[in-house]
Amino acid sequence: MMATRSPETDYTVRREALATYFDSTAKQAWIDLTSDAKVSGIRATVRAGRKQMRATLVGWLPTDLRRTRILDAGCGTGALAIDVACRGADVTAVDVAGGLVEVARQRAPGFIGHGKVRWRAGDMLDPDHGTFGHVVAMDSLIHYNPADLVDALEKLSARTTGSILFTFAPHTRLLGAMHSVGKVFPKSDRSPAIVPVAEDELFARLERLSGWQIGRTQRISSGFYTSQALELVRVE
Description:
7-stranded mixed β-sheet; alpha/beta; Rossmann fold
């Protein structure tokens, strides 16, 4: 009988595959996408959607973040980490792709007011990162199946005192069709595999997070970018 892999093993295998992808095949494309470089029309819609999503998530955080520890879980090239650091936050910005973390470090301004950023390559779930007031995981959990996604949130919730803001790929017929169409485009225009999640299924799975409740949610669609933000809030 074939052995069943544990969710942790599935998460680890997927995490390592993503690290390899973003540090090799997709590195330059991701650098271009998160800069002012000219990109294809498809990627331009993704860039616009990500900018809107980043603004949404940052807007859900308190305006004054001085003396507040923030985990940017899946920081990529660092735009969100810098945004919250400019509000005074003490940010730990982590990504599995060490090459992108190095780009983020190079792009970071020399002065960001009262805030600061610690750039780290590694696993966003590593407990050595410490405890945080808020965690933000923008488009970093969209590559995991629903079980692994909620497992990750549960691990993060154990070290978070305020809120967890994350995104997921909502399961819609339109999104499914767009992903199917995307397979015919050149490799440079493809994203790594995204796992659409049914909203009802996700909400049901989140019920196991004792001491947390669902807050705000917002779906953003921009061409080939469709992602939904969700807020989890710690309750007494």
